[in-house]
Design a protein that fits this description.
The complex is a heterodimer of chains A (326) and B (319). With 326 residues, chain A is mainly α. Chain A contains 14 helices and 4 strands. The chains are: A mainly alpha (326), B alpha/beta (319).
Chain lengths: 326, 319
Amino acid sequence: MSQIEAAAPKFKLTVSRDLTDVAYRLLAVALICIALSLVSDAFLTANNLLNVLRQASLVFFMASGLTLVILTGKIDLSIGATVGLSACVAATVIKSTGSPWLGAAAAIGVGSIVGLGNGLMVTKLRIPSFIATYGMLWVAQGATYYYMSGQSVYGFPTGFRALGSGYLFGIPIPIYLMVAFLVIGYFFTKRTTYGQQIYAIGANTVAARLSGIPVNSRLNLVFVLSGAMAGLASLIYLARLNSAEGDIGETLTLPTIAAVVIGGTSLFGGVGSLFGTFIGGLILTLILNGMNLLNLNANWQPLVTGLIVLLAVWLDMKTRSKTDSN
Amino acid sequence: MKKAVLLISMLNVAGFVGPATAADETIAVFTKNQTNPFFESVRVGTANAAKAVGVKLIQYVPIKPDSIPEQTSQVEDAIVKKPNALLFIPVDYKAMVPAIEKVNAAGIPVTGLTDRLAGGQLVSFIGAEDYRLGLETGQSLLKAMGGKGNVVALEGVKGSISNTDRMKGFNDALKEFPNVKLLTTQPANYQRLQALQVMENIMQTHPQIDGVYTANDAMATGAVEAMAAANRKAFVVGINGSQEAIDLIKAGKMHATGSSDPFMQGCLGLLTTVRALRKMPVQKELMVTPVIIDSSNLKQYDVPVASRSCPKLEDVAAK
């Protein structure tokens, strides 16, 4: 730790906070796992751990794009609705053309367009992101209802379904995708100028602008990436569930935000990491898994999630006020 | 959004083919949303019956699904337009009572449909009992399992009447089969994705699952996908009679789906309303018999709703 501090003093706070934040959260995951393995024989099996990771992957895809948005100090409330719209458009494209590739292009294209809309509302019209993406939530959801008119589209080609329910060397394919995006995301956020600029915008937008960072174009970029990742998540959803209907996005936004926040990304911007978000999604998934394994009523899950979110935000504010007073 | 009136069934404006008295009768039909295929089938049923007896329809559907303020303003709109009668599915059985009391005060007769209002004056109520639906769907599952083995249940939204009654029906069905063991009952809130994940988790602790009861078809399909991905097989039943479930039954991946026959509810609701308008006798309450769709009667229900036909106006009271 001291070496890092000596080598790069200006990133001192970010680096050390990131590391301790992630360490705390890994510790939390370890504690949950130890507790669950003590009370349930079924928990600590390769099968169940792969099951948990596969479930966590969907949350991760949605939450990773959102993490970039939140790192800039903005928010994207349209995530779930974007997943719903992308899924429905992609589903009809795959059904009518038979081509998963066109479907994938449609999902990611629709997601990116919705994201660009969010970005332009924030950067050109100067609408606060909370309001702009809240409006977009209804627009995307309404468009989905109109598009689907109460029907569901189902039954996709086996090759496409492998994306969600297939295995490679005994490991579910969504897990490979998640690891790949985790690695790419790490390099993007930590090792490229783009990534550092995203952190800088969230830490202090005015300073970022004054130091020559093209703030608006970076904000557009993170919103487009958030939408595109929502599009990708919708593909995983389709491949896993084999079906799309108008209301699938309705319940997805809040757990996604929870994953980012539990993962230690500050809603004030500038602090956090994709790896943290991965852990946040993992914790959320473990709660449901544990409750199901222990045969507890899973309706407690939202309550437990809420308490963990509050705890995470409280810790964030506490450490923040400490670093501020230094 | 203010005047969010959807005139979906303008096609019925041309329906002057019925008895001579019919030409200027207009009935306002209220359903909950555009998203659930159930209500689409109800609307098709009403449109089909309306065409046969020659009345005009105005379909009111909230754009935001199940929106109480929107349906309230649509009721106010209807009071101004003064249709001859209302055929009414409340988006909320308690919150819509004041709106219906206003319709009562305006002297427009109201027929209740699908969900029973907690107050207000109704000419008649047409619906289906979720309890019987749960009971008979459950019986069908437990019989298919040969009256033995392990079963799990996935619940809908806890506290909703439909879920409470469907689960009560299932639990009563279970009592008739003492050799079936209920492993666990878990909520998946009528959601496909939650059902998939909950089922994946349940399979971790229970190596042998022979039957899965779910309180709607979306959860049933989630359970089917979870089992298929793990190369496991069980009898799965759902409720709603959706086309997706029918296709899964056809493919041998699902055992049955219970249906409260929304098309028939639409038919009977509209015909009862018309009978009351034309001073023909009506029953105070009419319950549609649940239909359990499985491989034995699949053909009958595997047709587009629009091509089915309603009973005759004269036959309704006897049904």
